[in-house]
Amino acid sequence: MTAPDPFSLPPATPEPRRRNLLPILIGGGLAGILLIVIGGAALAFTLLTQRANNLPELLPAETQIYATFTPNLSDLPNIERLRQAFPETFDYQESETTSDLLAERFGVTFAEDIAPWIGAEMALALYGLPIEELTNLSGLEPADPMNPFSTPLDRETNILLLAAVRDQRAAQAFLDKQRAFREQKGERFTTNTINNVTIYASESDTTPFAAFALARNTVVFANKAENIATLVQQENDSTLARNTSFQTVIQALPGDRMATIYISGDTIARLTDALLESSTDTVPTATLNDAQAAAQALQGVGLTMAVIERGLRFDAVSVFDQNRLGNDLRERIAQLRPAVSPERAGDVDSAALGVFSFLIPEDWGQQLRDQLAASPETANTLDDLEASLNIDFERDLFRWFHGEGVITVLPLDSNDLPVGGYFALRVADRSAAEQGMERISAFVADSFGLVFTDTSLGRTQVQAIEEGDLFVGYGFNGNDLVIAFGRQAMESAFGAEQKLSSQSDYADALRALPSPNSGILHVNLTAVRELYNRVGTDLADPDLEQRLAPFKAITSTGTVGLDNQGALRGTLLLSIGS
C-alpha cells in the first residue's frame, strides 16, 4: 500500500504610526502558498479524492496534520474526463510504479491482495511534529524514494496510515502475507494484544510501516506500535472528530470536496513563533505582536480538492477565532473589503498569456512610511531618496498612484522580443497622474538620457521610447494609466479585438470563484505552450508536449478580510480539456 507525501510537493484611514496589516497578509499569503502546494501535488496524489467520515473518530485530538482520500477513483462524478487526460495517474492501480513499489516493499499486488478488502476511506495522520527541526529544513537528510518518510522527522513524529476495511478476512490475509514476505527478508516482529487487537511491531523497521494491525474495521500502519495502542484505546470524547478547531475548519470547507487536508492552528502558531524568534532584530515589535496574535487566533487550515466538470478545483481556508484577535486587530480587519471588479481582468485581450488584477490601497504610501519609520535603520530612507532623486513622493506618486490595477502578459510578433505586456491602473485623479508621470519622465530623461516622445497609435497619442523592436511607453485610456512594453501590448491595452471574458475557460472559472474577491490571476496554459513552441525552444522531454496538452488554464483568487465564520478563503481552478 502506497501513501502520498503531504510535503511533496496559494483600506483603513491613514493615521500616525499605524501598525500595518501584515498578519492578514501572512494569512492570505499562507492560503496562496498552500493553494500552490496542493495544486502542484494533486496529480502526484494518485489516491487523493473522496472525503472521509469515520477515520477522525479513531485518531487523537492532538493530530496536527490529517489528509483523507479514497482509492476508488471510478466512483467519482466527472472522473472520465480526467481519466482520459491522465490515464497514467488515474489508473494508478495498474501502473508499473505502483506494482514495483508494492512488490518490492511488501511482496503483494493491488489487484490480488488489496482490492478485495479496501474500503472507501484512506487517511494519513501526523502528530508530535518537531517544530524546531521543521524551521531548519536545510538540516534534514534527503528522503529515500521508496520511503518518503525516511528523514529524521519520522523518529519523533507519530505517523499513521489508515484504510477502512470492507472484508475483515481479506484484510487479515493481506497483513499476514506482507508480514511473511518481510520476515523472509530478515525482519523480526514482536506482538502485543490490546482489547483483542494484535499489534505487530518490527524490531528493525523505523518507517511508517514498522507496526501494523487490523483494528476497529481499519488496517493501520504506524511508525510506532504505541500509536496503534493509542488508537485501540481511544476514548470517544478525546478524538480528532471531537476537536473543536477541527470541527470548525471542516464545517468551513466546500461541501463538494473530494479530498481534504487539515492542519491544526496550534501547529501553525508554534511554527510561526519559532520563525519569528529569529526575526526580532529585523521586524518591528508591533508587527511581531500582530503576527503572533493572528497565529494564536488561527484555529486551523483546510485544503480541499473537487473534481468538477471542466477540471479540478482546489480551495484553501484559514479559520480564525475572532475573539482572540483583539479589538484593535479585529477592527482593522473589518475595514478591509474586496474592491476589484471582475471585469478588470476580463477586459484584457483574449490572446493574453496571463493576467493579474489587484487593488493598490489608497493609504499604501502611509503604510510604507510607517513601516520604514518603525526601524532606526530605515527611518530616513524615503527622505534620503527624495533628496537624491529630487522627487516629492507624496505629490508625485502616493497621492494618485492607487486604485484597481491589472498586469497583462502578451505574445508579440517578434522572435527577438516574443513577450510583452502592460500595467494599467484606474486612477481617481487623472490630472494628478498626468503631472506625476511628467515629473517621473523628466527624471528618467535627466538621469539616464532616455526621452519619452509623442507617439501615435492610430488616433491615440502616447509617450514612448522606441529603438528598433524595443518599445516602452505610457498613456491614458480614459482614467486608466497604461505603461506598456511592446507596441502591440500598448495597442492591445487601448482596444482588445476579443476580450478574455469571451473565452469559455475563463468564463467558467469565474463562475466558480469566490465573489467579491481581491483580484484574479489567470494563466492561459494553451497560449503559453504555443508561444514556447513558436520560439523554437527544444523540449528536454520529447513527451512533454503531450503531457501538457490537457492543461488549458489556471485561474485563482482569494478573499480579503474574514467572513462571518472567521474564514479567509482562496480558490485555484485547473481547467483540463477532454
Automatic annotation (TrEMBL):
Keyword terms of this UniProt record: Membrane, Transmembrane, Transmembrane helix
Segments crossing the lipid bilayer: 21-48
Protein name as it appears in the record: DUF3352 domain-containing protein
